[in-house]
Task: structure prediction
Amino acid sequence: MTNSLDTLSPVVAGVWRMAAWNWTPQERLRWIEACLDLGVTSFDHADLYGGYTVEALFGEALALAPGLRQQMQLVTKCGIQLRVPARPGTRIKHYDTSAAHITASVERSLRALRTDAIELLLLHRPDPLMDADEVAGAFERLYDEGKVLRFGVSNFTPAQFELLHARYPLVTNQVECHPLHRAPLHDGTLDQAQRLRARPMIWSPLAGGRLFTSDADDAMRVRGTLAAIGEAHGVSAATVAFAWLMRLPSRPHPIAGSRRIEAMREAVAATRVPLDSQEWTEILVAASGEDVA
Ligand SMILES: NC(=O)c1ccc[n+]([C@@H]2O[C@H](COP(=O)([O-])OP(=O)(O)OC[C@H]3O[C@@H](n4cnc5c(N)ncnc54)[C@H](OP(=O)(O)O)[C@@H]3O)[C@@H](O)[C@H]2O)c1
Result:
C-alpha cells in the first residue's frame, strides 16, 4: 500500500545510522511513530545503510503497524556496490548505474521495506560510467510498473544533474550542506535547484554532529553564533542550524539523522524560525571567518 502524498515533509528523517542504534523492532516503531507525530513523514533510506540491513530493520518495525505506511513517504537510493559477504561478486566497492542493477536494487528494497512502491528513488553517487539513456529507460519501466513514483539523484554536480534530467525528469538532488560545508551555495547546485523548482534534500545538516562536538575553530565559532541567535529566538542552537538551511530560496528539505526525538523536534521547530538575512549572514561569517566581500 503506498501513499498518495507526493511531496516530502519539510524535515525528512534519515535512517543511515539506525542499525547502530541497536533497537528492538518495538523501539524502532516508537521512533517512527514519534517522527510521524511531529509531522516528519518522509524517511530517507539507501539500499546499503547498515551494510544493506536498515531497510529490513525499518520494514520489520513497520510490519508491527502496517497502517502507518499510508502516512509516510519512503525515499531510498541505489547505485553503490559495497564489498560485503552478502555480495560475493563484488571484488571492489564501485558504482553501478546499469539498468539491471537499478531494477534489482529496487526489487530488493521493496521486499526489505515490505511495500509495493517507493515514493522516491535516488541514484546515490554520480557514476562516470552512467549511461543516461539506460538509466532513463530503467526509471521509465519502474514508473510504468508502479514500483517507483518519482526519481532523483544524490551528490551530483549541476552538469551531471542536467545530463540525466534531460533524459528523465528528476525531482531532487540530495547533497551535503551545512555551515562547515558550503560548496552547494556557490557551485551552482542550489541555483539549479531553484531554477528547476526541484527542492534539494540536505544530508548531514548538523555536519553529522560535528557542529556541536568538533573543537575546530570554525565549528566553535559557528556553535557560539547559533547559540546566540537561538537565545534571541527562544530556540536551541540546533534549531537555528536547521533554520539556516531552510532559509535558502531553493527550499531544501534537511534530513535529520538523530535517534533522539527531542532532536527531531528541534529540527521541526526550525520551520517556525525565519532568520533574517543578517542573522543568516552572521552564521556564514562565523563559518568562513571573514566578512562577505
Ligand atoms: N546521500 C548521501 O550521500 C548521504 C550521506 C550521509 C547521510 N545521508 C542521509 O542524511 C541523513 C542525516 O545525516 P546525519 O545523520 O549525518 O545528520 P546530522 O543531523 O548532521 O547528524 C546526526 C548525528 O549528529 C548527532 N547529533 C544531533 N544533534 C546533536 C547535538 N545537538 N549535539 C551533538 N550531536 C548531535 C546525532 O546523534 P544522536 O543520534 O545521539 O542525536 C547523530 O549522530 C542520514 O540518515 C541519511 O539519511 C545521505
Notes: The pocket of NAP is lined by residues 14-17, 44, 154-155, 174, 203-209, 212-213, 238, 255-260, 263 (CB under 6 Å). The chain is about 45% helix and 15% strand. The longest helix spans residues 217-233.
